[in-house]
Amino acid sequence: MNLIGKVDFNMSALTTVLIILQLLSAAAIIIVVLVQSGKSAGLSGAIAGGSDTFLSRNKNKSRDAKLARATKWFGVAFMVLTLVIGIIQ
Fold this sequence. Notes:
- By secondary structure, the chain is an all-alpha fold.
- It has helices at residues 2-35, 41-48, 54-88.
- It is built from three helices and no strands.
């Protein structure tokens, strides 16, 4: 009986840890998406006259590329955590 209770406690602790990780990944997705610049920002800059220099545009694109990659990885982590939590419960 003790062993079963101990396994339940460990499974409950594991589920709690996974849910906390899932919440952190969800918050990270929200933050990363909000930090990204919109897709229409490039078009409005081209029409308005484009005060950006060549170097600042490349810097912005690399930043956006890093944020897009981070969004994908956090999304994958969120989906995997969701599947694992669903399988455990």
